[in-house]
Amino acid sequence: MKIKNMVDSFNYAIEGLIHTVRTQRNMRIHMTAALVVLTACFFYNLTKIEFLIVLLTISMVITSEMVNTAVECAIDATTNYYHPLAKIAKNVAAGAVLVTAVTAVVVGYVIFWDKLMYISLVFMSKIKNSNSYIIFIILVIVCISTIIVKAVFGEGTPLKGGMPSGHSAISFSIATIVALLTEKPVIITLSYLLAFIVAQSRVDSKVHSILEVFFGGAFGTLLTILLYKVFM
Question: Which position among 65, 72, 155, 212 bears the catalytic label?
Fold first, then answer.
């Protein structure tokens, strides 16, 4: 029972994120910018501190936009007439988003500007020295991309149905990463077998259709290969 409640909590939380992406233009802009910045991380050998700052800044902007949306929805649900305090509350919430967005621009400028001045093939070769970061960034990009696609299709809920299957996308993305990092057939076979089991479990539990699982697996695999081959 506790596990079910925990899954439901995660489902509601991710559903809130998808709703924000689906209904708020600014959120879609923020998510697109996050993908661009995370992709840019492939080109530069960021320090741990720089990478954490970038990640926290992205989280801060996305979180502030979600809080702003929550404030607007709460006010609209309880106030059906103009009230100056309601206007102030919305303006303050929007101001919080503006502050975080400006901060993100400053952080991006400080971290990336000097590096952008010296773009060359040398930076492409440096990517191979940061495999741990690359693997993490690929998984984050796959997750964000899956959420965006779910928002576009607008079907099901984050953890219960919908196109594509997020579990399949992530599991096949991990299996593909393992396959790209090793040449041992046994490990590659076991990785894809585990990914297949995850996908099959979603069909057996009637959470996803075969088409949704197939699309999720193909999406995770192809996106991972694209990111890995382009930037490695």
Answer: 65
